[in-house]
Amino acid sequence: MEQQIRVVIADDHAFTRYGLRVLLESDADITVVGEACDGHEAVEQTLKLRPHVVVMDVRMPHGSGLWATQEIQRAGLGTKVLVHSEYEEDLNVMAAMRAGASGFLMKAGDVTQIVRAVRDVAAGAWIFNLSDTARMRPWFDELRTARRETAFPQLTPRERDILDIIATPRQTTASAAAHLGISTKRVENALTDIKAKLGVNDRMELIVQARAAGLGVRR
After folding, report:
1. Which of 21, 73, 82, 135 has the greatest number of CB atoms lying within 10 Å of its CB?
2. What residue spans in the chain does CATH classification 3.40.50.2300 cover?
3. For all residues of the chain together, what is the average pLDDT?
4. Inter-residue contact 190 to 159 (CB < 8 Å)
5. Is 94 left (phi over 0), alpha (psi -120 to 50) or beta?
6. Where do you find CATH 1.10.10.10 in the chain?
């Protein structure tokens, strides 16, 4: 990413927060801008500091990490949440996904994975490094469909169709126009309107947002 990735670490253990800070700030593109020791503080720090990513523990006092994740997503700041937990129980993973988390990592895993995961979720990817991904696939598919169908309510149905095609790998303005039976000029004008509505500056950023919301993956 061109700008520094701003991160807040939320964990009720000070030693864990320290270790994560040292590890994350070993990457020149990542800056830890705040820490929180419970769920309520995680929400407060996010609203105040507006980080790109919150690294969130699940089990914390005064508001769990799952509650905090849901509140952060409700705020609509565009902040991504990467859940970092000791517990890989299905209910924890499902709850994190439904709360709006963009990733789930185990604390017992390779610690160096978290740097890449923070970079990836900041760029709009979903990262779920689990011991058994296969059993979770139906849940991933269900959530992806639900997110896709409710994404970007400010867009018209035609604008959503155009964005969905443009976000699909190897699709172009011309192919979107051909698929929808309209001129390339109309597609270009629609993309200008879509970028304005979503507050993005360029096509690549638009595609990243679209794919993070589940668009561009059905063809």
Report:
1. 82
2. 5-144
3. 84
4. yes
5. alpha
6. 151-212
Torsion from C-alpha of 173, 3, 96, 41, nearest 10 degrees? -150
Distance of alpha carbon 34 from alpha carbon 96, whole angstroms: 21
Distance CA 79, CA 60 (A): 20
Report pLDDT for 142: 59
User: Which CATH number is 151-212's, of 3.40.50.300, 3.40.1260.10, 3.40.710.10, 1.10.10.10?
Assistant: 1.10.10.10
Among candidates 36, 31, 33, which has minimal Cα distance to 16?
Answer: 36
Q: For residue 99, what are the contacts with CB-CB under 8 A and spacing of at least 6?
A: 66, 67, 69, 70, 73, 81
Instruction: Write out residues in the chain with pLDDT < 50, as ranges.
Output: 1, 132, 218-219
Helix (H, G, I), strand (E, B) or coil at 196: helix
Residue in this structure with the two tokens 């794919």, named with its chain if needed:
211
Which three-class secondary structure state does DSSP give residue 6?
strand
Q: Give the pLDDT confidence score for residue 147 in this predicted structure.
A: 60
Contact present, 56 and 84 (Cβ < 8 Å): yes
